[in-house]
Amino acid sequence: MMEEHLVDWSRAQFALTAIYHWLFVPLTLGLGFIIAIMETIYVKTNSDFWKKTTKFWMTLFAINFAIGVATGIIMEFEFGTNWANYSWFVGDIFGAPLAVEGILAFFMESTFFAVMFFGWDKVSKGFHLLSTWLVAIGSNLSALWILVANGWMQYPVGMTFNPDTVRNEMNNFWEVLFSPVAISKFLHTISSGYIVASLFVVGISAWYLLKRREIEFAKKSMIIGATFGLISSIFIIINGDESAHQVALKQPVKLAAMEGLYEGKKDAGIVALGILNPKKTLTNDEDTFLFELEAPYALSLLGYHDIHAFVPGLKDLVYGNEKYNIIPTSQKMAQGKIAIQALKDYKEAKRNNDLIAITKHEKILRENIKYFGYGHLNKPEDIVPPVGITFYAFHIMVALGSWFLALFALLLFFVLKKDILKYKWLLISAVASIPLGYIASEAGWIVAEVGRQPWAIQDLMPVGIAATDISSTNVKITFYMFAFLFTALLIAEIKIMLRQISIGPNGGH
Fold it and tell me: Mean per-residue pLDDT for 423-427?
């Protein structure tokens, strides 16, 4: 039997690692392409200005890349140490994308990173430029395979359950790779990385303009950063719509939590601005919001591409709604318990070599495997994730995303059409928006992961079953060790970067 709070500590440790890791990754995803664009201009114009510009941003990229790798490796080891049950249950499927990521994408990224960073004047311009583009593509391919693995956890497809090994085994690689959830997650996540990188470039450029330093460098970097950011912001709106549609179809409980929707309804609107009532629970009649401003029909349109569509609320999903053919969670729990018992009976029949019983119990297991994870829940209400965290994270992400779109458009207009040096408020806003990009990106992950609780694998395995049965003391000790280590790495990165920014593209001259 697992110790009390072990699961919470294991969950906290993984969340800590993932949050810190994601502070480094998005900059790598976007800045790689921005550097590649700048170096392409350098190769085309043969201008030393663009070479210096490229090398400056490349130095910041390298600092971030090196520290990001360290946190990512730790996270992969945690699957084995803290989530051994999960790793056993899905090892054949989850391990494949991560192996492809390590063998192909990461090796490609790392190999050409060496050429990109150390190969100036040692290889031809063309080969160096190719290396820079391959680093950018490689970092995004790394993200693809990791997000394919994550997408499978949100929407498990392309596998069969083997009762002999009690493992899920992949039977269709392409179904896993091209899962609509995986694709929408990949596009949405890399888009957010591009926006973080764009904010980083325009924010630092704005700082130089405020200081009246490196004026030409700052303006031209800002043009590229704002253009890349504006295109990425438009793209994220498009793929965000598809992402929400997939959540509505595959994880309706998460969508209901994102909007604080307890009672399902047709013509559902989106809460553009609101404060949740902390007294509201699934079982009382308190108002959901203390204050709300709603955009009518928007949630039905976003979730189901139909302004009149019925959007199920948390109560519908927990207790069922016969009119809309939503079965109650209690029924899923009953089927899950049948599946778990059938697996036990199957194993017993195997030991006794009872062929008739083997066939019978395997058939029962197959008929109920869809709700296997529900058999481990204690009560129907367990399927509801923390509504407050999910709701506010979603709305912070959307609000900041809207601000970034406006900021990129304003910066591009003023740097091209006006003397942007006169618009101090805009430059200060750009500098202040650098951390906001990280907040928005982290908020997106909080929606994705907190919003799908209690599941480690949607409908198949709750987090409580996925954890390794080890001493919670060990997990606590490593939690604080990692917290110290990651914080030290973050402080080191910020200090090194600030020093490099202070030196500037011309070496402080």
Answer: 96
